[in-house]
Amino acid sequence: MNPYIALIRPGNAILTAIAVIAGAFIAKGPEDILDFQSEIAICCVSAMMLVGGGNALNDYNDRKSDKKNHPERPIPSGMISADSALNYSYTLLGLGLTILFLSPNKVEKLGYMPFVIALLGIITLIAYENELKAAGIAGNIAVGLMSGAVFLYAGMAVNDPGPTIWMFGLAILATITREIVKDIQDLEGDKDRFTLPARIGISKSLNLATLILLIAIGLSYTAMNQFENIAWNVYGGGITLANGTMLFGIYNAKQEDYFMGQKNIKQGMGIAMLAFIIAAGLN
């Protein structure tokens, strides 16, 4: 794969665009969303650039630990120089913000709130890369906020963030859980980072991850009052499957299969998003 494509982690970038569309769909439903096609397209393109730039910046900052944890990535494998990756990340981040800043003057229904959320996300990203990444749970919370913000950003794109607040909160908690498991997975190679597992140990970290996930699961069922009739049943079934998948991830992590553990949690997050989308369409 071309190193410039690999740096942005195209799968993550595409999933971000899907999350933006999903958030807009949850906010507006299947009919009204058609009135915001230009706004959603602009926000999808910008979000993909911002996520891609963030991933490239992350690879640049993790280039030393990735020699052990992820030697196949573009920088440690020698496919691209560190300086080129850094300049590429700045370019993507700058373009993503510029699009959001200039577009409200061209697109009638698009306001500046998506730009504000994106700017706050970049500030959080820079703080994470420079300080919070090595600061234990604070770093995990920062990543959770950035992940959850995609849904709030999508709601702002269609001028109706209210219905996306549930996804915003649940994504934060589920992402924090996954990030803790990922930190355990990378513990051996993260000698330069004082992550949560390095601070309190693997067992206590897993217990905290389990507690956070259980809170998310509890909150996920309180969202059922947003739906009626068949939508209520679809959401209930879908979110139960999602929660079961994420709990299976915790089980795998406790069996010391941390890769599958964090992967199962990510899969559960995808199922939860799908449950929200289908239920919103049926509501």
What does this molecule look like?
The protein is mainly α. The chain folds into 2 domains: 160 residues, Tetracycline Repressor, domain 2; 122 residues, Up-down Bundle (Four Helix Bundle (Hemerythrin (Met), subunit A)). It is built from 12 helices and no strands. The chain is globular, with a radius of gyration of 19 Å. The termini are far apart. The model has no long low-confidence stretch (mean pLDDT 89).
**Elements, N to C (H/E):** HHHHHHHHHHHH
Classify the fold: give the CATH topology of the largest domain: Tetracycline Repressor, domain 2
Major beta sheet, specifics?
A: none
CATH architecture group name of the largest domain: Orthogonal Bundle
> Given this structure, which CATH class of the largest domain is correct?
Mainly Alpha
Coarse structural class: mainly alpha
Q: What is the radius of gyration?
A: 19 Å
Tell how many strands the DSSP assignment holds: 0
List the defining traits of the structure above.
globular; mainly alpha; Four Helix Bundle (Hemerythrin (Met), subunit A); 2 domains; Tetracycline Repressor, domain 2; 283 residues; 12 helices
How are the SSEs placed, and which strands pair?
Blueprint: H1 3-8, H2 10-32, H3 37-61, H4 66-69, H5 82-102, H6 113-130, H7 137-157, H8 165-185, H9 196-200, H10 202-222, H11 229-254, H12 258-282
